[in-house]
Amino acid sequence: MKLERKAEIIAVGSELLLGQIVNTNAQFISRHLAEIGINVFYHTAVGDNPERLKQVIQTAQQRSDFIIFSGGLGPTKDDLTKETIAEVVGRPLKLDDEAFESIQDYFKKTNREMSPNNRKQALILEGSDVLPNRFGMAPGMLLEHESRFYMLLPGPPKELEPMFENEAKPLILEKLGSREKIVSRVLRFFGIGESQLETDLEDLIDAQTNPTIAPLAADGEVTLRLTAKHADQAETTRLLKETEDRILERVGEFFYGYDDTSLAEELAKACRSKGMTLAAAESFTGGLFSSWLTEMSGASEYFKGGAVCYTNELKVSAAGVSEDTLQRYGAVSAQCAKELAAGIRVKTGSDIGISFTGVAGPNTQEGHPAGKVFIGISVKDQAEEAFEFQFAGSRSAVRKRSAKYGCHLLLKMMEK
Amino acid sequence: MKLERKAEIIAVGSELLLGQIVNTNAQFISRHLAEIGINVFYHTAVGDNPERLKQVIQTAQQRSDFIIFSGGLGPTKDDLTKETIAEVVGRPLKLDDEAFESIQDYFKKTNREMSPNNRKQALILEGSDVLPNRFGMAPGMLLEHESRFYMLLPGPPKELEPMFENEAKPLILEKLGSREKIVSRVLRFFGIGESQLETDLEDLIDAQTNPTIAPLAADGEVTLRLTAKHADQAETTRLLKETEDRILERVGEFFYGYDDTSLAEELAKACRSKGMTLAAAESFTGGLFSSWLTEMSGASEYFKGGAVCYTNELKVSAAGVSEDTLQRYGAVSAQCAKELAAGIRVKTGSDIGISFTGVAGPNTQEGHPAGKVFIGISVKDQAEEAFEFQFAGSRSAVRKRSAKYGCHLLLKMMEK
Question: Are A140 and A133 in contact (CB under 8 A)?
């Protein structure tokens, strides 16, 4: 069995430090390395400055044995990743004939004249394996030197990403891969805060080794990433399943799906599997819920449409709320939410109607504070229901949270 | 004059190293520091591991005198940024009463129970200035210690970004600012590609020194960031204005606004200033356009609402399209777009009606390929117009691009 590798990623480019671009390469490479069981312990970004780059490389040599560089392989004087690594590790650069030919071809194909500095792009660290670049000129490379691996990749994501997946990953698996099978799964929760979830699972999280359990909160949702490793694939899966079952025993009521799914996607699936159709009357959410439900292809199977009834007049004319309700209870009320839901269900001929009425903020409305929200649900042959919430946060957060709760409530209802 | 600062940004969180999220915080902070003339020389990301974090802090101390941390201020045991810095710099943590109160308030407001580990979030490094968190619980802080500055910020961008702009930036300017006045401005363009824009401005971009001109393409829009520096504020502004004028002379027809604005926000402003109201009938965009227009507070002044008419039945019943039109021309047609726009305008009593009908994809519809889109516009006492597009890209890209073109067309119309 091969050694456990300690990897780190060094991005070279002053445009990162000026905030002109975001370092998506580090994320991309990290995600792919995690999948093949290689641990990344550091990301660094440094500018096009040979002195600082040199020091960053030396720091990396002290703590990592697989160092991956992105950027700085271009034709200009600014681009000095190769030259600086050559100096630090004491390996010369030499012209790679194949890479040089492919650069010449590229210019012929695009009918442009090659400038002398493009020759620089065909230089490689002596003794390294070359990674061809199918979407640009600079080749990548992998060098093994004094029991450390150095991988050099081009900066533009549209060159780096295919090169990594098609050329680099197989080479890494061959030369550095671990024999352990890694399986990772994300559990998604809604309606429970991060700290509550952790409190409920404290002993499991404290005792985590294999699988590891990593909680993350974003956009009003909490996720747990479970990652299991084992030489035997079946055992990896068993380990994962065992931990997942323990977690869901305690907080299963808040669980809604795996990996990259969303509440809207799960709701779409549920509607499809029950053969039910949906319509929405949206006041302060202004179409947000509907736009989520129509984001998936095939939405017409379960979503009919609805009304964006921002004004009170439209609540009456487009969604069938009575004038009397608006006068007696106001638009921000359980009664209005119920009538909106029932009205839009009937008008669209759907099985389920949902409504959103409330105060997105930042100002108060009808005497209600920002964040006061009513969600109405109407199902054929059942009494309408209304759910009241008081959310905190910005206007945008209140709208998103409300639309998510709408999905959540419908999912819970359909589970029954 | 104050010293030239050497800044570096350290992001703490294993989710970065696993590639689960991208480090947008480093970009955000870098961009804002560049604007106020503070040079960032390194970005680092490290996991939730006290030993490695400690070493990263020690490396930073050797090369930087302004160290900014993002992440690791949460309530859980994983969150250890404060604790580790306290150990490295030798400053104790103490409870900040105001921060603790604000956390308690947050729980009261949202009707949830505070778990004991939330108290940990109110601990601050003794002697630091506290940065209140308006969108979450963990306060930020700035500590000056042995001629170095340490700034701690929460990890979630929706907390970090407003905290940085409103609380941190003024404090940095006061305590660490340079005397050179830096003015930066973003010009936003729609309807022109990045390479076309660069070709049109090639000589200006090549000759750039002060102001610098940085192009960036994202989400179908192109932006140019101009940044000028000068000891004299008036001169900085003059330099910026001069370059902006030259740019707009050539590509002004595609320019729509400054800095963080959006097409929807500019459209909202235009409607307000002309006192005109708007309604939308959305088929394949499913409420996306409406949700953008209602994202801004005070939307009721210019936006009445509309219909999400995903099905043909709703195009007829909710937006007044004739059955005959659907049969003769189909839903994906100029004629249908015009009737939708006119119908929703009349039904909502608005000054302007806009409609979106087309094929979001990935499948074809009525024989039309994915990306075929008609946008209809109807203005009182004018003949309806329809605009035809063929977009490329994913379902999500086609929907967004269509909603943006809707804003763009209305803006152009209102300019006349």
Answer: yes
| Closest to A157 measured CA to CA, from A291, A17, A27, A328 | A27
A62 to chain B, any CB pair closer than 8 A? The answer is: no
pLDDT at A184: 79
Other Cβ atoms within 10 Å of A49 Cβ, number: 17
Q: Which residues of A touch B107 (CB under 8 A)?
A: none
Q: What are phi and psi of A118, to 5 degrees?
A: -70, -20
Whether B305 and A309 lie within 8 Å, measured CB to CB: yes
> Which residues of chain B lie closer than 8 angstroms to A393, CB-CB?
135
pLDDT tens sequence across B309-325 = 999 999 999 999 999 99
A286 touches chain B (CB under 8 A): yes
Question: Mean pLDDT over residues B362-387, rounded?
Answer: 95
B305·A318 Cβ contact <8 A: yes
Contact B131/B141 with Cβ under 8 angstroms? yes
- Can you tell me the distance from the alpha carbon of B217 to that of A20, in angstroms, rounded to the nearest whole number? 11
Span B131-161, pLDDT tens digits = 999 888 899 999 999 999 999 999 999 999 9
**3-class SS of residue B52:** helix
Cβ within 8 Å, pair B22-A19: no
Q: What is the pLDDT of residues A268-297, one digit of tens each?
A: 999 999 999 999 999 999 999 999 999 999
B180 or A413, greater pLDDT: A413
Q: How far is CA A213 from CA A179, A210, A260, in A?
A: 22, 8, 17
φ and ψ at residue B161, rounded to 5 degrees = -65, -50
Reported as a single tens digit per residue, the pLDDT across A15-74 is 899 888 899 999 999 988 987 778 899 999 999 899 999 999 999 999 999 999 999 998
Residue B339 has pLDDT above 60, yes or no: yes
Smallest Cβ distance to B290: which of A17, A287, A311?
A: A287
**Chain B contact for A402 (CB, 8 A cutoff):** no
The enclosing H or E element of A212 equals strand A212-218
Is the CB of residue B37 less than 8 Å from the CB of residue B229?
A: yes
Cβ distance of A55 and B43 shorter than 8 Å: no
Strands, E assignment, B167-263: 181-190, 212-218, 221-230, 255-258
Query: Which positions ≥6 away from B67 have C-beta within 8 Å?
Result: B7, B8, B10, B57, B60, B61, B148, B149, B150, B151
Collect all residues with Cβ–Cβ distance below 8 Å to B339 and sequence separation of at least 6.
B319, B320, B321, B322, B325, B376, B384
Give the lowest-confidence range in A278-287, B30-39, B245-254: B30-39
Looking at this predicted complex, what is its ipTM?
0.76
Q: Which residues 311-350 on chain B approach chain A with CB closer than 8 angstroms?
A: 311, 313-314, 317-318, 347-349
Residue B61 forms contact with A (CB below 8 Å): no
List of chain A residues whose C-beta atoms are within 8 Å of the C-beta of residue B46: 41-42
Q: Is A347 close to B109, i.e. CB distance below 8 A? A: no
In this prediction, residue A178 has a pLDDT band, given cuts at 50, 70 and 90, of low
What residue ranges define each of the domains in chain B, with the CATH number in brackets? 6-176 (3.40.980.10), 181-258 (3.30.70.2860), 263-415 (3.90.950.20)
If you average pLDDT over each of A84-88, A207-211, B110-114, which comes out highest? A84-88
At A359 the three-state DSSP class reads: coil
Of B269, B268, B306, nearest to A310 (Cα)?
Answer: B306
pLDDT band at B2 (very low <50, low <70, confident <90, very high): very low
